[in-house]
């Protein structure tokens, strides 16, 4: 009770002190990008009381962009303007052309699980070292063997479920993708019960995260207040996570490496140990690796398979294309000889269903002038990427699932999904992995995983809708840091007979 009262008093003092400063920021010579005339609550701005959740933020932004244009400003955390960019062209000019200026992140709490991640590290030499380290680990990793062992578990478990007719594969996808990334992070051979525990901890911790806080749209005092009721559970879950991850890290330090997870192939933890990082930083970087990689990739996989269940003709075409390219009784892991239509299916699904609808928050190290407006130094800059992939000015029939557009001669052919644009094209066309200096460093490996999983799943099984008609698969979205299917996929699985 005393704690609660102190917070209320502190908050009131904060509001009074900051109101003057806030008005000053709002009335510079160069106007901010346009925004609604909503009343500003000092320190709280005008965003939070209109859109207190990610779901409401998406709806509100859609109306604001229609009314004020593709770049709008709101007021979020205290005196900072929150600029929302929905234009592909403005995204290109800021993230790519002014890459260094927009490569900064708003400051984060320097403690907790996210305290030392690449994402929260300020743009500079430490960020560059950690990012290069992750990039070279992923480029050199033995992805094919790790994929093989994940698929060796996934395919039989789907086969056993297929006997019962209707299958809900989401959980199996999540487990298989998590196990793949865990072997890249902690080494091969992590015991099933440890994987299960770690995955449970990720789910538990993520369920406690204040999502708008993750986008830097909340004043710190309010974020703290939101965490207070759950801080006990949060800190206990973080401690259990730390103990589990430290055990896996110690296993890599054993000379004979016979411990759990200490197989011979080099893993991410080995690279962190070589950098001589303190325990706290290694735990944070392992959390980031698994967190950034697993849920995004397994969610993308579920959206892709949902599309293939709906569009039986595309599934059939894909199966034939894969069979024409290569067929082998053993599960197929990546070897670079893939069907072109497979790549097209994955890209088309990412265009329509990017797992993240917003980039992580960016900021700038100086005032930037954009189309007659100013983005002041230190503003929180957010990019809505989901609508960019469905922009009718860039894509024909943008809401239709047409993988053919990514084949030779199609409008999306040659597009670099990791850069966001086609060769010579000075605009973003879609950016499920972001664009510019902070773009996702795991994009290539995520694409390899998706292609390999889809290839195997379509080769082994026929994915049929449950019931008839358009409503057989519910494609409604569940907004969040990662946008999942609101109703998890259900499908009838038929094991393909080869022979
Ligand atoms: C389908 C899967 C994935 C999607 C859709 C995805 C998407 C994204 C997006 C949108 C960003 C933010 C970019 C920005 O703020 O400008 C990002 C950042 C990041 N991603 Fe991914 N990602 C995926 C998989 C992965 C994987 C597999 C890894 C690592 C193994 C990874 C590691 C990271 C890291 C470390 C960052 C922060 C980069 C920085 O701040 O410099 N992601 N990702």
TrEMBL record:
Positions bound to heme: 440
GO terms for MF: heme binding; iron ion binding; oxidoreductase activity, acting on paired donors, with incorporation or reduction of molecular oxygen, NAD(P)H as one donor, and incorporation of one atom of oxygen
Keywords (A to Z) from UniProt: Heme, Iron, Membrane, Metal-binding, Monooxygenase, Oxidoreductase, Signal, Transmembrane, Transmembrane helix
Where it sits in the cell: the answer is: Membrane
The UniProt entry lists membrane topology as:
Single-pass membrane protein
In the record, which residues are listed under signal peptide?
A: 1-19
Cofactor(s) annotated in UniProt = heme
Record keywords: Transmembrane helix included? yes
This protein's GO cellular component annotations are: membrane
Report if keyword Lipid metabolism is assigned.
Answer: no
Concerning PANTHER family, the annotation shows:
FLAVONOID 3'-MONOOXYGENASE-RELATED, OS07G0451300 PROTEIN
Please identify the protein, giving its name as recorded: Cytochrome P450
Biological source species? Lolium multiflorum (Italian ryegrass)
Q: What is the lineage of its organism?
A: Eukaryota, Viridiplantae, Streptophyta, Embryophyta, Tracheophyta
């Amino acid at each position: 009770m005393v704690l609660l009262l102190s917070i209320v008093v502190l908050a009131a003092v904060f509001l009074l002190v900051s109101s003057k400063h806030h008005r000053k920021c709002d009335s510079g010579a160069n106007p901010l990008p346009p925004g609604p005339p909503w009343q500003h609550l000092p320190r709280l701005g005008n965003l939070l009381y209109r859109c207190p959740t990610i779901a409401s933020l998406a709806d509100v932004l859609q109306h604001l962009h229609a009314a004020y244009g593709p770049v709008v400003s709101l007021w979020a955390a205290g005196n900072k303007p929150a600029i929302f960019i929905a234009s592909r062209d403005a995204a290109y000019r800021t993230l790519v052309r002014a890459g260094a200026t927009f490569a900064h992140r708003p400051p984060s709490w320097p403690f907790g699980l996210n305290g030392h991640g690449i994402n929260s590290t300020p743009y500079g030499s430490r960020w560059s070292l950690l990012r290069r380290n992750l990039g070279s680990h992923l480029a050199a990793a033995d992805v094919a063997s790790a994929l093989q062992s994940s698929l060796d578990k996934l395919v039989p478990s789907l086969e056993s479920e297929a006997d019962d007719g209707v299958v809900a594969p989401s959980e199996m996808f999540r487990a298989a993708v998590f196990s793949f990334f865990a072997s890249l992070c902690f080494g091969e051979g992590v015991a099933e019960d440890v994987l299960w525990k770690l995955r449970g901890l990720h789910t538990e911790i993520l369920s406690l995260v204040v999502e708008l806080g993750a986008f830097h749209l909340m004043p710190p005092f309010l974020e703290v207040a939101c965490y207070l009721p759950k801080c006990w559970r949060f800190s206990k879950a973080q401690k259990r996570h730390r103990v589990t991850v430290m055990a896996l890290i110690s296993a890599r330090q054993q000379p004979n490496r016979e411990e759990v997870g200490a197989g011979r192939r080099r893993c991410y933890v080995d690279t962190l140990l070589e950098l001589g990082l303190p325990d706290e930083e290694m735990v944070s970087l392992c959390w980031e690796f698994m967190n950034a990689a697993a849920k995004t990739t397994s969610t993308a996989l579920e959206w892709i398979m949902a599309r293939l269940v709906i569009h039986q003709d595309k599934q059939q075409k894909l199966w034939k294309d894969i069979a024409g390219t290569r067929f082998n009784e053993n599960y197929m892991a990546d070897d670079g000889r893939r069907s072109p239509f497979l790549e097209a299916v994955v890209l088309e699904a990412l265009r329509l269903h990017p797992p993240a609808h917003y980039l992580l928050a960016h900021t700038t190290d100086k005032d930037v002038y954009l189309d007659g407006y100013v983005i002041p130094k230190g503003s929180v800059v957010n990019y809505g990427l989901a609508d960019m992939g469905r922009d009718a000015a860039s894509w024909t029939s943008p809401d239709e699932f047409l993988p053919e557009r990514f084949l030779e001669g199609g409008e999306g052919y040659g597009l670099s999904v990791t850069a966001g644009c086609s060769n010579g094209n000075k605009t973003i066309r879609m950016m499920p992995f972001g664009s510019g200096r902070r773009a996702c460093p795991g994009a290539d490996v995520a694409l390899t995983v998706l292609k390999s999983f889809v290839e195997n799943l379509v080769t082994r099984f026929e994915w049929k809708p449950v019931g008839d008609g358009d409503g057989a698969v519910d494609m409604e979205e569940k907004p969040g840091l990662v946008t999942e299917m609101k109703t998890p996929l259900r499908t009838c699985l038929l094991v393909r007979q080869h022979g």
